[in-house]
Design a protein that fits this description.
3 copies of one chain form a homotrimer. Chain A is of the alpha/beta class. In chain A, strands 1, 2, 3, 4, 5, 6 and 7 form a 7-stranded mixed sheet that branches. The longest helix of chain A has 16 residues. Chains in contact: A-B, A-C, B-C. Chains A and C meet through helix 5, helix 8 and helix 9 of A and helix 5, helix 6, helix 10 and helix 11 of C.
Chain lengths: ~280, ~280, ~280
Amino acid sequence: MKESSSDLQVRLNRVSPSYWRIIMDNPPLNLMGPKFVLQFREIMGAIESDEQLKVVVFESAVDGFFLNHSDFDVELKELTSISQGPTGLEAWPDILVRLQRVPVVSIALIRGRATGNGSELTLACDMSFASREKTRLSQWEVGVGMVAGGGPMARLPRLIGRNRALEVLMGSDDIGGDLAQAYGYVNRSLPDAELDGFVEALATRIASFDKWAISNTKRLVNAASLTPEVEMAAGWEACMASVARPTTQARLRAFRELGFHKPGDAEDRLGFYVGRLNR
Amino acid sequence: MKESSSDLQVRLNRVSPSYWRIIMDNPPLNLMGPKFVLQFREIMGAIESDEQLKVVVFESAVDGFFLNHSDFDVELKELTSISQGPTGLEAWPDILVRLQRVPVVSIALIRGRATGNGSELTLACDMSFASREKTRLSQWEVGVGMVAGGGPMARLPRLIGRNRALEVLMGSDDIGGDLAQAYGYVNRSLPDAELDGFVEALATRIASFDKWAISNTKRLVNAASLTPEVEMAAGWEACMASVARPTTQARLRAFRELGFHKPGDAEDRLGFYVGRLNR
Amino acid sequence: MKESSSDLQVRLNRVSPSYWRIIMDNPPLNLMGPKFVLQFREIMGAIESDEQLKVVVFESAVDGFFLNHSDFDVELKELTSISQGPTGLEAWPDILVRLQRVPVVSIALIRGRATGNGSELTLACDMSFASREKTRLSQWEVGVGMVAGGGPMARLPRLIGRNRALEVLMGSDDIGGDLAQAYGYVNRSLPDAELDGFVEALATRIASFDKWAISNTKRLVNAASLTPEVEMAAGWEACMASVARPTTQARLRAFRELGFHKPGDAEDRLGFYVGRLNR
């Protein structure tokens, strides 16, 4: 890390040699732009190369937002000019694929909106636990004329079944904690007051186990469930093609007029506003 | 459509250029025979070739029956003599495969019995919403010595897991709305009074979205979840072989003596009567 | 069976020509050792070669234990010296693969602890029904430095999704009846007082159906859901490698000092004690 921690949108907190927490902190909306991706990639490299690490927890420092959609104030070329990662995929899908592969257990602790990138990070983590009251998961892309870029078309059908995956993707609506648990979109949703304690206990428990056993068990689970990289690549390419379409740009501009991309009701109830946009 | 609408067992209602409803209407039991298949196939072609269509809803006009098992009063050769469809599969599995592929969102609105073909149509749709009180899903075939012909052996394990798929298929029993939701057999079951409004709102919402985004997102979901056609073909062939067996014909005859294939208690509680048949 | 029934750890009860029950009876903990495996394999052969059999139910005769982890008092070489089975896999994964393939419906009736081998048998059965109050499912292996040997890394992600499979395997904790049902780890959990009647009714119902229809339907479900044997083999090899590690042997010895491997609180609340072991 070359920047001071106050400049960082993604911070690494080494709770112990075997247990790290990754804090996502880009207020006020926890949008994801190129800077976020580059900082995340640096941390991903640290996760991969550490020999003692067993478990990482992803959480947010921004009230109301676990991790949100992309930052549309940034020029698209700033994102696409980032070099490809070691998997040969573009930077964001590269990170998500490496997180699924790495012999370290990853846990998403979800409180607030997990839209687009936030949902994609959830799906790339090994487990996810969500605040029952304060979680809003969504893949909102189809609702504004886009295709999602971080692989939910590949991952959701295998996780929650084709019918519910298509509901999430085509409906582009917000999914609360209870429904997310019923669908298996997250492992469990817990009362908000219990969530932190639950995740802390589980992470500490796993951190006490043997790394060899963790690594080999995850390797074999991956043999049964790793998302094909060709599908991740195809999803990213369709996303880029969708953003370049004039009709999509027009929808995004119209959506800003409804309050999108700034703090307020439209970001708080994004699924509802997606429905209003197209009326 | 060459016939007047009153002759049609499957009707097409164009609510708007982007949103159609398909009404299944073959009273009193909504059985599926060759005429139904041919009319459905014609509508399937219309769905595939329309450039504005984004969402179709399947519903029933027959009280108590969404879509039921096949019509056993018709000679089997009337069904098998229908030409193969463009996929090279026989007519019914051909329709189901095309429905899964087509870049249009399909929604099953289920009220009443969805047995055999009705369950298979549900599984071929992109999403399904069911009346909590009035839904009876079932694959009844094993209970009368048959193998199902429209692909549930291929689709159910991938949707609800191998163990629950085997329970549905081997138990041959009726599954109500709550259990269907718990198993993921349908997306959700809703109070009967809320079902129509929910589906109307979702269909209208999706119809307002961009077709390019819908098409490309469904294409990528299909890459992760399309049922292999070879399994659909194998299921159809096993079904045909099962119907030709004398022991199966004897079971079907005995079942008619219990009230099967005519309005009444046996069709209303088919799962229970399947159990009585074999005692 | 050459031994008298009182010597048998696995007994076969032919309720009728079409319906058998397999009783696991190795008190006090229902551990699995080489003798158990050999007796189970003999019964597996009988299941495969019988022409009238349609359904088998697995149950326990030991209070509190459906089927437990392996017997660590036995020398490992007694287990590894058993000849490979007809699939070419080692004895235990060979049995589990054959159970999944055989054209007979298998049902696990779970009451008490189903840890390690007990969970693996559950996952190999076609269906499973569990006592809501008295079930404790677990894959405890990672918690003591092991990798599971009977294929849960291959089976759980396909059954309950990657995220919940990883929670079960990495958490190494006890899973009660309600959570097991919510995750789809079992078909259903039922009130303990209703469990026996439910399974008896379902088994009797299936036993009244046609064997040809059962066989061909299961064959086609297997086409969609059979666990790749290469993954079963890889899991077994990783398990053997894990047991041979000095650090794992040290953890197992320390666990015995906490009460592991003998009747009492540690076996009753194994998941809790796994957490204490590593503190």
